[in-house]
Write a structure and sequence with these properties.
- It is built from eleven helices and four strands, in the order H-H-H-H-E-E-E-H-H-H-H-E-H-H-H.
- With 307 residues, it is mainly alpha-helical.
- The protein has a domain of 209 residues.
- A two-stranded antiparallel sheet has the order 1-4. A two-stranded antiparallel ribbon has the order 2-3.
- The longest helix is centred in the first third of the chain and has 32 residues.
- The chain is globular and about 65 Å long.
- The protein starts with a helix and ends in a 14-residue tail after the last helix.
- Belongs to the binding-protein-dependent transport system permease family. LivHM subfamily.
Amino acid sequence: MDWAYFLQQLINGLTLGAIYGLIAIGYTMVYGIIGMINFAHGEIYMIGAFHSLITFLICQAAGISGILPLTLLLMLFVSMVLTSIYGWGVERVAYRPLRGSFRLAALISAIGMSIFLQNFVQISQGARVKPMQPLIEGGITMMKSANFDVQLSYMQIIIIVLTFVLMVVFSTLIAKTSLGRAQRACEQDRTMAGLLGVNVDRTISTTFVMGAALASVAGMMVTLYYGVIDFYIGFLAGVKAFTAAVLGGIGSLPGAMLGGLLIGLIEAFWSGYLTIEYKDVATFGILVLVLIFRPWGLLGKPEVEKV
């Protein structure tokens, strides 16, 4: 066995899984409060990627793209702010008017919003792929073998470290702050939370904004890592991130991250050692097996019906 090749696929899988995990946290946060999946979340991630690219082009036109730290901070800030506004808008338009309706209505509304956002970006930005020059180059050679050198790029380090830092920050925010207490109260019983003084509408809107901000970070990381985006990247990434949230245990932030990492590793090793054409089949096949034997996911808790 070529251990250098194995280690390279491990690094690639962790990087891809970290991106899936960031998007999956947004899915699991929204589900934890309103009990529904935001199927427009993948498109929010795609919009975040476009915002980061447009901000870079503006910096380039202004002549400040050579100042790399400033450019990256501006890309991150603008992308998070603008994408969060989109997340807030999705909640106001697609979810809030239907909150008292039957569950299928909100689901259809979210799918419709996903299609609308995808076509909106296609019309406004064009259907062609959008390339971007590499901004962060170089890396560390971790191992050398006769046929293969293991490379850990600086971009991969940034993605993995930033993802775990954000997961810790958001987990602490939900566990230790008044906003987190309001979110957990709404998760248990929205009506009772409202009677006890929790602003339910504001709490739900804030949750959508937080999920959109995380998705925008993932979108920026993908733009910097792969250097090419298009209007369709949100669909498949959204499906994979939703799968990660279900695999790890929907409603659990560590579970979403674990599910993302597992899916990233499955895809990397399957593509590296078997065939890349069937990597999605392997991912969803393992999801089915997990749900057969553990329907609530790896770190999720079984729901108890109170009578």
